[in-house]
Structures are given as C-alpha cells and as structure tokens.
Specification:
This protein is of the alpha/beta class and 309 residues long. The protein folds into 2 domains: 154 residues, Quinone Oxidoreductase, Chain A, domain 1; 124 residues, Quinone Oxidoreductase, Chain A, domain 1, CATH 3.90.180.10. 27% of the residues lie in helices and 31% in strands. The chain has 9 helices and 17 strands. Strands 3, 5, 6, 8, 9, 16 and 17 form a 7-stranded mixed sheet that branches. A 6-stranded parallel sheet has the order 12-11-10-13-14-15, with helices on both faces. A hairpin with a 7-residue loop joins strand 1 and strand 2. Helix 3 packs across helix 4.
C-alpha cells in the first residue's frame, strides 16, 4: 500500500510502498479516507520525541484518521463497513495514518462517525479537537467571562475559540490583522490582539482588570499568567504547569490531548449538529504531503487536511 514515510529523523517525508497491515485481536483495520497534519507529525520528523517515545523506522506518519472498517480482529464489536474516525494511539511511533490503511486498537482513540460528517471533516478533528476540548474543560469558562486564547489561528486554537464562545465566554484571540483576524472572528472571537505586538497592553485595553482564563497554545505563558485576575485559570498544551506558576494566585493545568471515545463522540456530535466548524485551511492529496508540511510551516490558518481515499 502507499504510505508517507520517513527513513530517519530529519529526512523528507515521501510516498513509499509498504506492506498492508492486518488486524490482530482487539484491533481494527481501517481503510483511510482522510487525515490531517498536526504539529506532532513535524515533531516526529525532527526527532523531538526520540528520547521520550520509542521509534521504529521506517515510520509512517500521521495521527488523525477517518474512514471505513475494512477488517476486524478477534474480540472486536465493530463491523466491516462501519465508518469510524479517531487518533492513532500506540506506544511505539511507527505505523501512522498517512497511508491507505491503518490498524488501530478498538479500546481507545476511535469512535463511530455520524452519517452527516464527512471523512474530510473527521480526518481533521480527532487530535486537535481533543486537545481543544481538554484545555476548555480545564479552564471551564462561564458565561460572561473573558477568555484569552494565544495560538488561536492553529488547529487546536480554532477549535478552542469555538468551544469557549459556545460556553458563553467573551473570547480574545491572538491573530495578525487581516486574514488571520477575520478567521478567528468568524469562529466566534469577540476581540483580536496582534501577537506580534504588545499583548499585555492590547489585552489591558479590552479588559483593564485582566481576564478570567487563558489558553496557552503559543507564545510566552508568563505574559498570559500576568494577565489573569486573582484566582484565574490557565491551561497549556506546551508544558507550562503549576510548578512554573508557583507563588501566583492562579490555577494552572498542563493538558495533553485525550481522544477517548467520549471526547470523540462529543466532538463529532457537535460537528453533525452544526455547532462546531472543522476549520480546514488547505487540503492536499497523499502524494503532496511534502507540500502540506511546507504549508504548515508557513502558518496556514486552521487545519491542513490530507485526502487519501
């Protein structure tokens, strides 16, 4: 089968022929219809996690998947032909979703795909959507509170803006003027601050007393923490945790994406209901994944989708 692989850290991702996998006990073989690019994929290419996770080359890249069950192993309840989506969650980095087929476990990182949600939408939903749900759950925004989201133009940020706005919060999003600002306001941000300028001054002009909560997906977490009111909440996907905020009267949570079935079901139901947009900025075919990495590095807003089937 065709798959996007790397032969070593730092090598250029390329389409190669690899053996089609088979589903073992408790596993599902998915015929991939769509996937998407995440920061994790770039981190794998450059070896960011080489001392934290085991890697086996050649590595097939890709975390998100959406498609159809092709075959099931012993003890699996799903049926051939079922539409599913989710995130490849394996202890070894080797077999990803930038391929015509991927094997995943039934117990974690997979959910049923509602009929009205397309593969392209679901393929860009799992990892970024789960991370966004995690940070918004952590700060638990209340109606009328002001929430600052730093890194709002990326995939996680685009979902976080929508989830915070849906909770009734007044969202301040970081974005450059022009296309980026239009993007985040279209998702529900009430105000935009330019992250290339003085964020503190811009936010204070909108919320002189500070913000109730902040989401750290990019930039300096210390600046965000300094903008919180007493007892304010901050959630970070970039390793900023309670120990870094010691001595401050704030609550800090370090968040990792948790694509369990309940979270994936919640996200898919929101997309099906039309209350959550899947923010696809650009789309590429499997043969153009190298170009997709280039677009990611150039700062495409939203998600970069990859069509497989």
């Amino acid at each position: 089968m065709r798959a996007v692989t790397i032969a070593d850290f730092g090598t250029t991702p390329a389409v190669t022929d690899v053996a089609k996998p088979a589903a073992g006990p408790g596993e599902i073989l998915v015929k991939v219809g769509a996937t998407s690019l995440n920061g994790f994929d770039g981190a794998v290419v450059y070896g960011v996690f080489k001392d934290m996770m085991e890697h086996k080359f050649p590595i097939t890249l890709g975390k998100d998947f959406a498609g159809t069950v092709e075959a099931v192993g012993e003890g699996v309840n799903r049926a051939v032909g079922d539409r599913v989506f989710g995130v490849v969650m394996k202890p070894v980095v080797q077999d990803g979703a930038f391929a015509e087929y991927v094997v995943v476990g039934e117990g974690y990182g997979i959910a049923a795909l509602p009929e009205s949600v397309t593969d392209a939408q679901a393929g860009a939903l799992g990892l970024a959507g789960s991370a966004a749900a995690g940070v918004i759950d952590a700060i638990a925004p209340q109606r009328g509170e002001v929430v600052l989201i730093a890194g709002a133009t990326g995939g996680v940020g685009a979902y976080a803006v929508q989830l915070a706005a849906a909770a009734g919060a007044t969202v301040i999003a970081t974005a450059r003027p022009g296309k980026e600002a239009e993007f985040v306001t279209g998702l529900g941000a009430a105000h935009v601050v330019d992250h290339t300028g003085d964020i503190d001054a811009q936010v204070r002009a909108l919320a002189p007393a500070g913000v109730s909560a902040a989401v750290h997906l990019a930039g300096d977490p210390g600046v965000l923490a300094g903008l919180l009111v007493g007892g304010g909440r901050l959630a970070s996907t970039l390793g900023f945790g309670p120990e870094q905020a010691e001595g401050r009267d704030i609550q800090v949570t370090s968040v990792m994406a948790n694509p369990d079935a309940a979270t994936l079901d919640r996200l898919a139901a929101a997309v099906a209901a039309g209350t959550l947009q899947v923010p696809i900025g650009e789309s590429f075919g499997l043969d153009s994944v190298a170009a997709a990495f280039g677009a990611f590095g150039a700062g495409t807003v939203g998600k970069i989708a990859i069509t497989v089937g």
